[in-house]
Design brief:
The protein has helices spanning 2-10, 17-49, and strands spanning 60-64, 85-88, 92-100, 112-116, 125-136, 142-150, 163-166, 175-178, 183-185, 188-195, 199-204, 206-210, 214-219, 226-227. By secondary structure, it is α+β, with helices and mostly antiparallel strands. The chain folds into three domains: 2-49; 92-166, Elongation Factor Tu (Ef-tu), domain 3 (Beta Barrel); 172-254, conserved putative lor/sdh protein from methanococcus maripaludis s2 fold.
Length: 254
């Protein structure tokens, strides 16, 4: 480099000091020009890199809202910003379920679940409950829970409709009675039973799960209580009833 050679020659007074200063300044200017050019190249490389969009996870593009050659704003301009692509990670799906309040305390993290789809009859996909909202929705009285499901086969699609089956352990055993045994009165639900001297008694009960034709009774009666089957709406407390012996294959009291 000329500046370095002139600096060494200056020690032996072989060149003029003015020539050394000129060579050093020229070298410094050229170094500055090179750095400026490198910075400009880096800027252009970064602008070219904007042509490619990278996502932080592996997935599939489920929606594309732009075409080749379309002007893409920076996002800082005035106006409504739009999503260019929608990418979904389908290797592990999060399923959100609204659980009725009756089962809210039984659905806790770690609970096993199974998914079934109407288009894949007979297939079950295992999952696990990972978290809950820890609060009931004030409108629907349901608990929002999240179930994670491994989708290594890719058969499960995002936003699909599915049925979730939880393996809930009952907190307590409950009796099941025909739904037709219940009477709905202004003071609440009453279950007509037979007590001493064949007298009818309308007792309040706490109901559990409703299965349609049958319903669970959580409290108010035990397994030895004689329940009146298909009671008339006119039945009142203390009314005399006639108990019939149950025929083979027939249960209940008349």
């Amino acid at each position: 480099m000329t500046a370095e050679r002139y600096t060494d020659l200056l020690k032996s007074d072989s060149v003029a000091k003015q020539d050394v200063d000129n060579a050093v300044q020229t070298a410094a200017a050229r170094v500055t020009a090179v750095k400026s050019a490198e910075a400009n190249v880096k800027r252009l490389q970064e602008m070219v890199s904007f042509e490619k969009i990278y996502v932080p996870f592996d997935g599939v593009v489920t929606a594309r809202n732009t075409d080749v050659g379309q002007l893409i704003g920076s996002g800082s301009a005035v106006g409504q910003n739009r999503e260019l692509f929608h990418v979904a990670a389908i290797n592990r799906l999060r399923v959100f379920v609204n659980v009725p309040q009756t089962y809210s305390h039984a659905t806790t993290p770690g609970l096993k679940a199974e998914l079934s789809l109407p288009e894949l009859p007979g297939r079950r996909f295992p999952g696990s409950l990972v978290r809950t909202a820890d609060a009931l929705d004030p409108t629907t009285r349901t608990l929002l829970v999240e179930v994670d499901v491994n989708n290594t086969t890719g058969l499960l699609m995002p936003n699909a409709y599915t049925e979730v089956h939880f393996k809930v352990k009952g907190a307590q055993s409950a009796l099941t009675i025909p739904s037709a045994c219940l009477l709905f009165r202004s003071e609440g639900i009453r279950l007509p039973v037979v007590k001493g001297e064949n007298r009818a008694a309308l007792i309040p009960v706490t109901l559990g799960r409703d299965f349609g034709a049958t319903i669970e009774v959580l409290s108010g009666v035990d397994e030895n209580t004689a329940v009146i089957a298909n009671p008339p709406d006119s039945l009142v407390d203390g009314e005399t009833v006639r108990v019939l012996q149950a025929k083979p294959g027939v249960e209940g009291e008349q």
